[in-house]
Amino acid sequence: MYDRILDVVPNNPRAVIGKAYALGVVANADQSDTVLEQSISEYQKVFSLPSIPKPLMVAAARACAEKQTHRGKLVPPVEVVCNWGN
Questions:
Q1: Structural domain boundaries of the chain?
Q2: Which residues contact 84 (CB under 8 A, 6 or more apart)?
Q3: Model pTM score
Q4: E strand or H helix at 50
């Protein structure tokens, strides 16, 4: 579903975040590190999109940090939240 939206509107932050969230749900259900990495990658795409409302940026930063923490990488999430969460 989100891929169809992104085909039409590639810079839609809500669609990117939605896709990242959905991948995170699948990663948790399947206990898949590969899908978790895909989720993190989608969240990271948000940071390079133009004109993102701050609440969406903060939500994406927090979600990305949480996913990276599950992956066992603690330093990058702290940087993400510090840069975008304030």
A1: 2-84
A2: 47, 57, 58, 60, 61
A3: 0.79
A4: none
Q: Cα(first)–Cα(last) distance of the chain, in Å?
A: 31
* Helix, strand, coil abundance in the chain, percent, nearest 5: 80, 0, 20
Task: Kindly state the tokens that stand for 21.
Answer: 């969230």
Could you please state the CATH topology (level 3) that the domain comprising 2-84 is classified under: 1.25.40
Rounded Cα distance, 56 and 73, in Å: 23
Say how far apart CA 60 and CA 37 lie, in whole Å. Answer: 15
Indicate the DSSP class of residue 64: H
What are the tens digits of pLDDT across the range 19-68?
A: 999 999 999 899 898 999 999 999 999 988 888 898 998 899 889 888 88
